[in-house]
């Protein structure tokens, strides 16, 4: 499918409801935006929260939050373009394209303004969306993510041991090499989850199997490679231009975990330059995946932030179900 826009209103299809042993249901549908079909999951009632996943994740990574927040919020967790069960269109796509997708998705579902909860790759998408479409957003919540204040520190030699996937994934060798053995995808994905988690035991066998099964689907390794190549080219252009993006003025809460090897907590020192309405605190006793490693604490931080936005007049969308 092409990477162009469509004139018609975005199209919802194949909606299904799947039960869950935790006592709640998750609705699955495909939504057409900008020439691509996005897989979207929804549950709960109340103020709408759009959950944006990272790598090597897909919508399923937010299930611990969906279980804990569905009594107070409507949770909307899409697979970003190139990930999960969403389309992997021909051509480049990165945060700019995925933010455009999210802007159109909010319109398609008629749920704006929404709260944004993001992590890792999703944080890059959320920043673009916040700068380009602030009117669609009530507030921003981030777990660890890449922002301009990190700068060249990401590429320091001692750090590359933990993030070599960002370079490997740009290679044309990545997909054929990982598909050359039945076990390769599983070894690759579980290696990084366990490397980055401070509490790897938080990922039980069933959860790891779900992540591996997702990346084993046709096109998902390639989709990740396209994303990382596009991001690398984008950052090279930004470095050459030397322009600093404008600060984001929306209400923002950031909780950065203290034990993340991939995104170090000392890199939070410049957050105030890029977020002017900032509530920042370190998040203890977790690595790269606080929503899995400390789900009760993570859910509390998310709920507390968005519930306090009442004074700004943010109410549940009339379309929220």
Characterization of the model:
With 321 residues, the chain is α/β, with parallel strands linked by helices. It has one domain (12-312): 3-Layer(aba) Sandwich (Rossmann fold), CATH 3.40.50. The protein is built from 12 helices and 9 strands. It has helices at 63-69, 95-109, 121-132, 157-163, 165-168, 174-178, 184-196, 205-216, 220-241, 271-274, 290-293, 295-307; strands at 12-18, 26-33, 36-44, 47-52, 73-78, 114-118, 137-142, 252-257, 278-283. Strands 1-2-3-5-4-6-7-8-9 form a 9-stranded mixed β-sheet, sandwiched between helices. β1 (12-18) and β2 form a beta hairpin. The longest helix is centred in the last third of the chain and has 22 residues, at 220-241. It is globular, with a radius of gyration of 18 Å. The two termini are 30 Å apart. The model is unreliable at 1-10 (pLDDT under 50).
CATH topology: Rossmann fold
Helix-strand string? EEEEHEHEHEHHHHHHEHEHH
Which class in CATH terms? Alpha Beta
Which class best fits the helix and strand makeup? alpha/beta
Number of domains: 1
User: What is the strand arrangement across the widest sheet?
Assistant: 1-2-3-5-4-6-7-8-9
What does the radius of gyration come to?
18 Å
CATH superfamily: Alpha/Beta hydrolase fold, catalytic domain
How many separate helices?
12
Tell me how many strands there are: 9
Low-confidence stretches: 1-10
Mean pLDDT level: 90
The major beta sheet can be summarized as:
9 strands, mixed
Strand percentage, roughly? 15-25%
